[in-house]
Amino acid sequence: MASLSQIPKDxxxxxxxxxxxxxxxxxxxxxxxxxxxxxxxxxxxTQLPWLLLPSPKAQASFFASFLSGCRRQISLPHDVRRADHxxxxxxxxxxxxxxxxxxxxxxxxxxxxxxxxxxxxxxxxVPFLPVPRLWVRMITLSDKPTARNCIAAAHxxxxxxxxxxxAFCRPQVDRRWxxxxxxxxxxxxxxxAIYYRGEVYQGFYAINNQENLHVFMPLxxxxxxxxxxxxxxxxxEGGAPCHVRDTYGSAASVNRYLVESRGxxxxxxxxxxxxxxxxxxxxxxxxHFEVFEMVVTLSPDNAADTSHSASWVELEDLDxxxxxxxxxxxxxxxxxxxxxxxxxxxxxxxDAAAPTLHSMYISDVGTYSRGKGVLLxxxxxxxxxxxxxxxxxxxxxxxxxxxxxxxxxxxxxxxAGGSTTLKIVPETDNAASNSExxxxxxxxxxxxxxxxxxxxxxxxxx
Length: 462
Description:
The chain is mostly beta strands. The protein has a domain at about 1-45. About 5% of the residues lie in helices and about 35% in strands. Strands 20-19-21-22-25-23-24 form a seven-stranded mixed β-sheet, with no helix packed on it. A four-stranded antiparallel β-sheet has the order 3-2-1-26, with no helix packed on it. Strands 4-5-6-7 form a four-stranded antiparallel β-sheet, with no helix packed on it. β6 (about 105-110) and β7 form a beta hairpin.
């Protein structure tokens, strides 16, 4: 057998271009000096987020790569004893972790050889009152944690009751979370937040269940000692496009995600409900998604904050985009820059239910695409209907594909509820071929039942 040194360099480089995943290239570079040199000559292709899963085993978690189609173990820094769940992420391998129900919390770089760990506060600053005990549902960042002006936003719940709030801190600076000075940090039933450099405001955009936007921006910091945030309501004209509308009359819950794409702010709306033949008890399954783009109307004088407004405009399709949705970690990509991926797919996490109710729900993590036969298994050339080999399923992340079937006549559906409903049917089920039923979408679940509890997954961008 010829050695690597005998293979022409251009041929070796051509073969290595088929390795699109950053993790695969790093592993290959550790084999020998020749491969390390060859990998170093290659430009890094566009990377998709990894599905990062917490593990009950100390000092270890798992991630799944859609570019390679496999699952691997990843080690935590020695300063982090365990990660019971993840609650946010940031570009460059940063992830927000929680050890235990009420922390401690920290920002960890899983790709750093030095094991960077930035502790986060465990309490909220409440003047003249006892410090309330809390737990963090979601964390999102304005910049990487080591940046000088980085601000972290957190969605806080209180163990003793009270409305959830959004609060802020500067990693490595503040010992407690602080609420906005102008505004109490309450935005109603909170769904998601993102740091967005918009046309009018640059700051943290938060959305509630009424699809109203609130923007939080830092004021001048007095003497560098105190973080001061102000809250501005961003009026949305025309009301909530999804809150009052349920086309199929079957969605039991609605969740919203904010994601930036092509310089615009998108709202991805997830409708979940009873999933049909695979559902039990209170299980909720993804039934359909809707995507809206925020269109800003500037005031004539561009003066007062309250004179600006916005509206949500529904997008008929994703126009060649691939979207990953998750609280505090949503991302959008152009399918044209990815090998083997089609536009129009939405990747989702099992975060529609409140964490305290997670035990009442089955794992619902997967890929959604409208229409039958559109969705291919990501990262692999040709899909198979079922993965029955136990050894293969432990290595591969994919489970059998499901079909979202519309029963009844969709043209007669009304906002008040008609005869049309949605249900989940396995592709191998004979009911899927019923000519009287319309397949409106396909869902490819990831490792349902093979990896245990999905509580606390997150998208990690390498």
